[in-house]
Design brief:
77 residues; mainly alpha; 30s Ribosomal Protein S18; 4 helices; 0% strand; elongated
Length: 77
């Protein structure tokens, strides 16, 4: 055994892939979308949110739609 051996951790999967019935991505669901926006108003990266690439693109599109119809602000207040 190597002296600096560390077992690899299992990465948590995407919450949308794990529970498709519980979580649905919709531009009207502001409470869910606010989880994926930083304090400065930018969309968080997929690595920080632990989302898969497909669902991260759906989230980004929903946030952009919500911003367009003034449900979410473009910048932080």
């Amino acid at each position: 055994m190597r002296p600096n051996y560390r077992p690899q951790r299992h990465r948590k999967g995407c919450r949308f892939c794990a529970n498709p019935d519980k979580y649905t991505i919709d531009y009207k669901n502001i409470r869910l979308l606010e989880r994926f926006i930083d304090d400065d108003g930018s969309i968080r990266k997929a690595g920080k949110t632990k989302n898969c690439r497909l669902h991260q693109s759906h989230i980004a599109l929903a946030i952009k739609r919500a911003r367009e119809i003034a449900l979410l602000p473009y910048t932080a207040n």
